[in-house]
């Protein structure tokens, strides 16, 4: 059985590339995925502390990412946060629970616009308070992580992947 690491090494060797970055890159991919799951765990834990069980962590993150925007489900998907069927299901549930308002677009009657209700805005406010706590924990950790450098590097990887999708391997 060939592992992802061995597959990348084999491709790199056949192209004569340096191998040093490959294991670091694969570990970074694993960490990004794990951090996303951990973020959902943090949100769930925060809701448990508040005694809230009506919204799950994925739905809460969806509300947070909508913020003060008014957009379509398609626009939310193109932002790159969610998979299609997952978005549709969760948006429907959030509308049913009163966290989102769904209305036909005045510009294009075929499109359905979504925005946060007052209940949704309240939930986002609670999530924002939790994020302030998390940022404070980061700032007080010893040593404090270089969040700016991390953000910069993640943006660079995002740009490389976007270019790869749009233009292919160069």
Order of strands in the sheet with the most strands? 1-2
The succession of helices and strands, N to C, reads HHHHHEEHH
> Quick one: CATH superfamily of the domain at 21-131?
Winged helix-like DNA-binding domain superfamily/Winged helix DNA-binding domain
Structural class designation: mainly alpha
Q: Mean pLDDT, as a whole number? A: 84
**Helical coverage, percent range:** 55-70%
CATH class of the domain at 21-131: Mainly Alpha
The outline comes out as globular
Main β-sheet description: 2 strands, antiparallel
| CATH T-level topology of the domain at 21-131 | Arc Repressor Mutant, subunit A
Radius of gyration: 20 Å
CATH architecture of the domain at 21-131: Orthogonal Bundle
Total DSSP E strands: 2
Q: Which regions are unreliable across 5 or more consecutive residues at pLDDT < 50?
A: none
Distance between the termini: 29 Å
- Percentage of residues in DSSP E strands: 5-15%
Quick summary:
With 170 residues, the protein is mainly alpha-helical.
Fold and architecture overview:
With 170 residues, the chain is mostly helical. It has a domain at 21-131: Arc Repressor Mutant, subunit A (Orthogonal Bundle). It contains seven helices and two strands. It has helices at 4-14, 21-50, 57-66, 73-78, 84-96, 118-140, 147-167; strands at residues 100-104, 112-116. It has a two-stranded antiparallel sheet. Helix 3 (57-66) packs across helix 6. The two termini are 29 Å apart. 10% of the residues are buried.
């Amino acid at each position: 059985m060939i592992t992802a690491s061995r597959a990348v090494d084999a491709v790199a060797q056949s192209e004569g590339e340096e191998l040093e970055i490959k294991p670091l890159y694969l570990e970074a991919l694993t960490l990004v995925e794990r951090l996303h799951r951990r973020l959902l765990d943090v949100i769930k834990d925060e809701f448990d502390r508040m005694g809230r069980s009506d919204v799950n962590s994925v739905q809460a993150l969806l509300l947070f990412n909508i913020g003060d925007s008014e957009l379509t489900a398609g626009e939310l998907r193109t932002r790159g946060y969610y998979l299609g069927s997952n978005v549709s299901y969760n948006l429907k549930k959030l509308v049913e629970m009163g966290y989102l308002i769904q209305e036909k677009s005045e510009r294009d009657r075929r499109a359905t616009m979504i925005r946060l209700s007052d209940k949704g805005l309240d939930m986002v406010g609670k999530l924002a308070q939790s994020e302030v706590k998390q940022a404070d924990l980061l700032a007080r950790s010893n040593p404090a992580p270089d969040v700016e450098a991390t953000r910069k590097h993640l943006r660079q990887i995002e740009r490389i992947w976007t270019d790869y999708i749009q233009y292919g391997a160069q």
